[in-house]
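<instruction>
Derive structure tokens from the sequence

<record> Sequence and structure tokens follow
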Amino acid sequence: MTIVASRVVGRRARAAGVAAVLLLSLAAPGRAQRPLFTQKTPASEFAARRAALLARMGDGLAVLQGAAEDPAYVRFRQNNQFYYLTGVEVPRALLLLDGRTKRTTLFLPPRDERRERSEGPLLVPGDEAARLTGIDDVQPRDAFGAAFTVAAGRDRAVYAPLRPETRGAGTPEIARAHAQAAAADPWDGRPSREETFVEKLQAAVPGITVRDLDPLLDALRLIKSPHEIALVREATRIASDGIRAAMAAARPGVREYELEAAADYVFKQRGSQGIAYFALVAAGANAIYPHYHAGEATLNDDDLVLFDYAPDFHYYASDVTRMFPAGGTFTRVQRELYGLYLRLYTALMESIRPGLSARAIAAQAVPRMDAIVSNHTFSAPRYRDAARAFVNEFRDLDQDTLGHFVGMEVHDVRTPIDSLQPGMNFTIEPALTVPDERIYIRLEDVILVTPDGYENLSAALPAGIDAIEDFMRNAQSNRDLGTRSR
């Protein structure tokens, strides 16, 4: 499978990889050991984020804790809120931002020579760490308690993240649900790490009230900087090439997890640090479950395969979905329903404009979708009913987004909005379902709101019937040629 995947996407991967290096200045360091500070994002980007947060805090005080080390042999990944402000990838780091002095202090654990001999050097307190990170002062972690006590003891607003941290493949809602389940479990009952941290802060300075920092950070994260857009764009390119590899590997008799493996190869080959979420590879009737991920079914010739998968690339995610026929050719019913769905989906996408609310966009799209349904010749009444139900979801839209935001998490921060603004990244992923036949059709694209309209970051990935069939026909020819050459 990996041989097929590398052949299909190799040229695209090499070209896009070179472009990404030029665009993002992500070239590897000259030295062999890992860098002490990230080279994925410039230190100036983190400094701008800290300055923006300090401006929103007034004279308040913000404190954050970085992620702890993992109790397993996995590569360390910082939590998203801490990384967003610092870029520091050191376990158990602490951060203090002072709204009065406009200064930031980072607190790091001391050098662990035994660990460094095993894993390589980490950033440690001192002038070198301050120079590399651009943070005003970098102190030993043991100094945090005294520094916080002095700073917070002047009748000040204190902010800290209150929702559970998210790391690789995490989302705020999943992290929150896990913490709530643990607290409610009579055989568990643990408070979250964030709750414990707040208790420690209040014990250190009795009488303080700790306010939620997350809404302030979420508001900043909602509008992406040019650098963040470039990272989401590259994550989307990688996701798209992973889906191409899965399409090229698909054929009757292959298992769902083999398609996942083809994309995994591409993700790793293109420098991803992990996955943005578990692979959703659903053949045939399995697609009716939106988050199906068992991955063990065998593809049949007439199966329509849903493939929804994306990487965690330099702390930024994507979220792209395509559907394709396992045998390379859409059946008559698949062609009818998928073709109709694609026209409705396009009508919705083409209604997106900055300055409009989700409801306003839906209101513009619905008449166009009604006309598409009215002019379509259905082969069965139940298909007409399914199409009308699809349109009615937007006729009665009761939410402020068309899908979900995408950024450091695949389901990124949720901040109530009145309208779409340039720099917002989100997906659209409406589904057309025929429950009686267990038919489920869904696409998903990553949309960037621009000053003049929108950009579909995943537009280069085939979505039309002819484009998909042509791609899979060529992939089959290449596979046959490779088999004969061996």
About this structure: The first strand starts at residue 61 and ends at 65. The chain has 15 helices and 17 strands. Residues 1-31 have pLDDT under 50 and may be disordered. The domain at 40-222 is CATH 3.40.350.10 (Creatine Amidinohydrolase; Chain A, domain 1).
